Amino acid sequence: MSTESSSAPNFIRNQIRDEIEAGRAGKIVTRFPPEPNGFLHIGHAKSICLNFGLAEQFGGDCHLRFDDTNPAKEEQAYIDAIKEDVHWLGFEWAGAVRFASDYFDRLYAWAQHLIREGKAYVDDLSADEIREYRGTLTEPGRPSPYRERAPEESLDLLERMRIGEFAEGEKVLRAKIDMASPNINLRDPILYRIRHAHHHQTGDAWKIYPSYDFTHGQSDALEGITHSICTLEFEDHRPLYEWFLDNLPVPARPRQIEFARLNLNYTLTSKRKLKLLVDEGIVDGWDDPRLPTISGMRRRGYTPASIRKFCEMIGVTRADGGLVDIAMLYHAIRADLEDNAPRAMCVLKPLKVVLTNVPEDHEEVYEVPGHPARDDLGVRQIPLTRELYIDQDDFMEEPPKKFFRLAPGKEVRLRNAYVIRCDEVIKGAGGEISELRCSVDFDTLGKNPEGRKVKGVIHWVSAAHGVPMEVRLYDNLFQVEQPDKDKDADFLDHLNPESLVVCQAIGEPSLARVTPESRFQFERVGYFCADRHAVAEGRLVFNRTVGLKDSWAKIQKKG
RNA sequence: UGGGGUAUAGCCAAGCGGUAAGGCAGCGGUUUUUGGUAUCGCCAUGCGCAGGUUCGAAUCCUGCUACCCCAGCCA
Question: Which domains does chain A have, with CATH numbers?
Fold first, then answer.
């Protein structure tokens, strides 16, 4: 599986390879440690591919561990969704799903250990006071008045915190490290805070919860994680990560390695902001096809392989501040679907065409391949009748020079069928084009017409047999490359009003019986995916995953 | 003006002292009953800038500059 991800080298892979070659590494164990406070997005996919990919390449294991130390923000629903997303992406975690909360007892005992060693203390300062005592980036902090509290007292207080004797915010447990450290993370970081919250895994057993810093490294050590890979913003936490490993009787010595998180233009990868879009109803849930969530991309029509391919393309480095062009993502999915998606014809904006030299009751059926290069994708039946629909974009009353499609007096090839000529344009009362009257050259089926070249080919659907369907044209959710670039502005101001355009389309008959999530190339238009929700309910709805490359649009833009 | 990081083409990214991979985007040709695909070609005398070491530097040294992260009882 995911053999395509086995070729691209990166600094982490090189490092592990070197360790193995030097005999300094045994079995590799990595982990993907999401917090269940939202849905996974494309940035997580990068981490998933890295962690699971590494384990796979070196014959090791990758654990799935929920970093569930903040019950106020976490939910079982997110846990379920995350598990499904990881599986859907094509990865299998080793052993059972793990939770940081599995280690709460151990962590508590270790907190007591630190207190006894004089390396931790219960602090009565308020949150505001702690901030004040912490100092600033340029000024050292000052010790809390409670810093030298006797271990016995701290032990007692911590136990009473645990069983709920104190209100939230009344006390915290802090490590005693260095209030003057230039690294703020070492200025007596908080180990436990009081939270009278129900926890999705541990219920009401705890009234205190450990902080990320006090949890992560120890959890890694308990699981025998060898390489703890995280993003660059945790770099400053590494000394703290190591401080705990140094000062606690942990069973193993994991190493933290940081890499740069993914930034994709025209998209947001902030869980907080994605949640806001969902909560405000600006998008249709966490799996809205415009969202860069794994489930949104799935619903949009991305394949797991295309996402893995994309993650391989962008690489893994420590260079931050970069911005990956979303064109790379589009390339990855087009490449997959070009090879694997069956073809179909679908008219997005129907324009009626009457073939005047075809009798009313005439009907002929063509058998055409499901894919130009994949016999295994079968064939489909395409009926032609006197009345049919073509796309409005494929006709122009006053065409520019390089317009190869239909125009008054001009000829065009109906894909898989005849060459037709437009003889007459019928207009409605408002002057809008309501119908085209065309004639068929019956000597052009499967061959070129005599004595002239017809360059254009357009798709079409029989009016008598076409199936009405809803087609949702998705585009970037934002109109600017970095919607959250300006910290003082509202990213919602950059929403693309045309991120979703709904069409009442007409598709070829074979499209009438599709299964949820089946993907097609609508020829000359783009790649589409049968909406997993709507189709399951019996409605014919297709989501545009990505358009085909459009060199005509480029020519037009150039003038 | 504290600490920690990062700079290679429009974008992503290899490279680790021997003379700048690859991909995306773009441009041009060929093929084509998808203006798609495929295919061929073009696209960094130069690696943030300035010095230095060396026969030789993107790779080593020195000094600058720019950008990113950190002052949650979030992760």
Answer: 26-259 (3.40.50.620), 343-557 (2.40.240.10)
